[in-house]
Design brief:
Chain A is mainly alpha-helical and 742 residues long. The first copy, chain A, is built from 27 helices and 8 strands. Chains A, B: It is a multi-pass membrane protein.
Amino acid sequence: MASVKRLYKADSNLGNPLNTNFDVDFVIDYRFATTGKAEAEAQFVKLIESLNNVGLATEVRNGDNCAVLIFVKIASDQHLKAEVYRSRVQDWLYGVRAAAPEKQMQKNLKDEPVTQAERLRLVYLLITKPKNEGGAGITPKSGEWKGVESVFALHDNTFNKAWIKELSSKYWLMAEDFNVIKDRFGEKIAYYFSFLQSYFLFLTFPAIFGFCAWILLGQFSPIYAVVQSLWGIVFVEYWKKQEIDLAVQWGVRGVSKIQHKRPAFKHESIVKDPITGEDIKVYSPMKRLARQLLQVPFAITVAAVLGSLIAGCFAIEIFISEVYDGPFKSYLTFLPTVILTTVMPTLSTLLTGFASKLTDLENYETVDAHEAAMIQKVFVLNFVTSYLPIFLTAFVYVPFAQIIVPHLDVFQLAVKPFAESEKQMEAPKAGFQINPDRLKKQIIYFTVTAQIVNFALEVVMPYVKRKVFVKVKEVKAERAAKRGGTSSPTADDHPEESEFLARVRSEAELGNYDVTGDFREMIVQFGYLSLFSVIWPLVPVSFLINNWIELRGDALKIALETQRPVPWRADSIGPWIDCLGFLAWLGSLTSAALIYLFSGDGLGPEGSPWNIKGWGLLLAMFFSEHIYLAVKLGVRNALSKVDSPGMQKERGERFLVRKQYLAESMGQEEAEKAATGGIAAGEKISRSTLEYAATLGGNGTPEERFWQRQPGQQETIAAGRKYIQKKAAPTESKDTESKKEL
Amino acid sequence: MASVKRLYKADSNLGNPLNTNFDVDFVIDYRFATTGKAEAEAQFVKLIESLNNVGLATEVRNGDNCAVLIFVKIASDQHLKAEVYRSRVQDWLYGVRAAAPEKQMQKNLKDEPVTQAERLRLVYLLITKPKNEGGAGITPKSGEWKGVESVFALHDNTFNKAWIKELSSKYWLMAEDFNVIKDRFGEKIAYYFSFLQSYFLFLTFPAIFGFCAWILLGQFSPIYAVVQSLWGIVFVEYWKKQEIDLAVQWGVRGVSKIQHKRPAFKHESIVKDPITGEDIKVYSPMKRLARQLLQVPFAITVAAVLGSLIAGCFAIEIFISEVYDGPFKSYLTFLPTVILTTVMPTLSTLLTGFASKLTDLENYETVDAHEAAMIQKVFVLNFVTSYLPIFLTAFVYVPFAQIIVPHLDVFQLAVKPFAESEKQMEAPKAGFQINPDRLKKQIIYFTVTAQIVNFALEVVMPYVKRKVFVKVKEVKAERAAKRGGTSSPTADDHPEESEFLARVRSEAELGNYDVTGDFREMIVQFGYLSLFSVIWPLVPVSFLINNWIELRGDALKIALETQRPVPWRADSIGPWIDCLGFLAWLGSLTSAALIYLFSGDGLGPEGSPWNIKGWGLLLAMFFSEHIYLAVKLGVRNALSKVDSPGMQKERGERFLVRKQYLAESMGQEEAEKAATGGIAAGEKISRSTLEYAATLGGNGTPEERFWQRQPGQQETIAAGRKYIQKKAAPTESKDTESKKEL
């Protein structure tokens, strides 16, 4: 296999039409199926013009199902350079770069070549930024640009092939792999991969330990719980440090301060900034706060709706499996699962839609704020859907089964049609034994089965779908061709381009990649680990395996199944880190509770889990939580002491700036001093300085007279000597005298 | 009374010898009572020389009990300016100042006059900084400079008088008052006063509310607890924001990054910094961590030692007051108090000494780190001494009295000598009623009596002591004079200076002001409020009154009873804020517990406080804590939304720097664009740019050919039109056709 490095670096100009992108930066997929011809044309012209106006060259080609593909590249090298330089200066102004960029544009660009990610990002901004900020102001799918279906960059197949090969051929990724990702797909995605990577590496420990625990300690082992939650603390704190470190290494520290305005933002009024004099579009924060408070009812609704659904199905399942013993029992057991799998997804999509509506309502100025708010709500949704079932089993079913089961008769109607006699549906009034395995079974389902299913849905499914889709298209095309339909888009493709265009057309059909979705998955997974893994210590093992595949799968997804993502920058994984912290903290509570409830063959301390002592349970949780918080503090403290490459880099850069500035402001030799440890040694005072006073003679202010009494060093020393002479000797004697007197 | 402002501004050159300081910056009190004459002289000469070497002018005069007073001022105005400028540049380098100081020294100094605090700070640094950093390296009381008793600045009496008058004449201080304090005594002390001030203002609310609660709700009211702890959250979060804001307004934001090296720091090895090439003295952090872990046993010891002492006295007291009923009971009741008041102070001073030893052992590089570590330990000490007694009463005595009291017979020996019969000392085996008032009494003692006593010790006592001391000295002096002892220091004072020198000599005798002590007081006070004020809602009222006096008292202390403090800078109140947070958080636990335990006339829910339900108690605490944490998060969030003058200032400065830089780097007009909202609009591409491709003709790379197919805007538009024409019309018909086919 050829040197991976070389393949990585390989750019697309390899002649081979499947690989070349003809220098295209972005493709705009403009559709006019629904619009009238005249309007479509007018809008198209407008589009081309506004693109050219911001210095973008355009080519147009035919697209599938009444669309044209507009190929965009930045018109002149000069223009690109200007853009790059401006953005770098802006970075510096916002404190993203420590060192001010060289004032000579060319030099700066030579020192720091433009990466693909940087180029694409800037071009994309040129296309989408509002006019007043110097962009073409094209907002896909919204406003006057409804016609613009998507604005996407073209995949670099040569690179993608090499990349996938590389990833699947090594056990874990190195720093340079992330650099490659960052230079191709932007920091935001690089962050995802590097997070997934560290998470994967960290998992090895609990996986091994969990396996041993599974063999030696069995489930609900306090030792495992302690180790696991300690691990959780270390991981979260480590990542907090690591993400800053990466930001510095990638030179994007604080990039989140450079906010992209949301086109959808509606401002109430425009205020002149008192100092900067900038016009700021404002929306009263109080109003927003009020709307944000809607999240509380939202969360409650979510919990209520999904909760009742889950609880309901759960109850039915218990009723059928534990109470009912008529015919078809084996089939009926699946009834609740069926209900869940059909109703749940629709419900959650519904709620997600509602959440995004809510977020729009909150009307944030910037994209980041908007995203963050959305993530919060999504997290709540996922929290309920993913963890509630287990909470129900662990903290409702097991402790209170005795009380609940008898009342489950309400669900008789669910099975009435099948039961022969009332008896079959009667709950045993007493002596009902709960089934302690249920919990474990559930965990295994969520942490193994679900993961696999999920992966299938995520990677395999779309692949198949796509293949089918392509086939259908071909068939259609053939038919059209048979009927000599000139309307086939490929008709007037230039032979040299045809393959290329075919590729572009198929890429135009792809969905776009959403990194938050992948993040969500990982966070939820971490949740299972920290909340419930005491129930079944093999959880981390399953995750370890899953994540190795997950990482490659996601890479595959990006390379083959989605349009090339816009390479956005980021300086952290954003609000997800808080979710992690929250889950780790909650874990300290649940683990303690679970252990207390189930310690001893899945039954409570008194052998029967449902009459445990409340205060004991609470005490266990109370201590575990506060120990957790204390340890967390300690770990954070310890980690903060450790130096890291990123910090070193930062220090280094700051130092350089310092010296340079000082060199300018106060000759070289001074600079040396001042830069290293501050104030330089004061120059020795010439006698003259001290004696100027003497010249004044007896006259002058009292101050002058005071300072002239000992005009020079010699005089001062002499005077001092005199005093000491006089004192030092008689001291003792005098003291003794005074003693005598007293 | 003359305009306060003027008095504030008044500098000391008023001729009146009591007010003038003869331009003296610092006085060095050099004592040689214990050293031999020769050595004393040599050291003295060395002292003078090293002072002159760093550009300080010196005068020497006679001091009390074998000491000479060395008067120091910066030799030349030029030299001062250089120092000021260097320090300002350094500030900028460390990011303390947003805007780079004008490169022309003179201009910068004109724009920003040197404050007294700045001048004194720099001179003090000149005197004390190690030689290699350009100072004279004089370390009072340590190393070769054991002889140097103290290095102190002289009080500005005119200002002090005006200041005290001002403070005592207004109800609360304004921003300008703090500015004055900052310019005279430095930011660190200004922070203390401004903290005390905000605390005082915030107290008004709980004071009023508490008073109402006391009348309407009585003690242990949940409502009061909720309101009070909400108040606590708001106060702590507010201050966190406020202290940053002040730092920005005072231009010291991030000043804590400029660390002063500890002379006492012992380094293991010297490492060259990989990047900066600076020599760094390092001490292995692991070793330090190991030593820091000693704090755990330390804390335990403290708790154990003081705890057992307190518990012991407590038990004896109970025994005597509740069990014993022989003669002298009334007197014996004081026995424990006597023990406490005698043993406790000695013990805690002992432990404090131990703590400082421990801190030295931890061997920090910088003064700040050292201080922070010390504060931690001091906090632990104070926590035990201040709160443990109440904890004992509330959570041990009241709930478990029934169990404990019978076992108190062990203390019989304490009273044996007085008792007539065994009976008098026998604990009632049963039916013992605990005394619910005890708790309230204790609180009142700690929050009223103790505060007053404390104030007396702090302000009145030293004043008296000083007066006495002066008297004694005079008497001695007279005696000496009578015996014609030439050894009286005042003997050869120049008449013009004599009064001034007398003042200096007395100031030399004063102790120096320690702001951390005052902080400690306030934090401990806040603790009582947040931990126990549910017991007696009048607590905040008492504190409100106390703090009004406290603030003035502290000012008085600084002005009259201590040497003028060195005006250090600071950008926060340091680790104290964490202590505040901790106490507020702990309050959420204790308040809940207290209410649960005592709700209903100081007795438990079942009427008798000692058989409460454990789980109920824990549940109450559990909820209260987590609600607390949630609310805290919310409040922090809400506050972060609010804009503040400090932030505005910062933004403004940053904006100016931006514009200025851009103006330099890319003409004015560009700057406008780039500064407001980043990248400027790309210039319209001339047709030539687009057409360069055409010139190439059919040859050239595939890319070139691709981009030349539609050389200009017109061509592109035309092509697009064609496609649309062809498609838009037939679309429907074709679709229907294909439908037919299927």
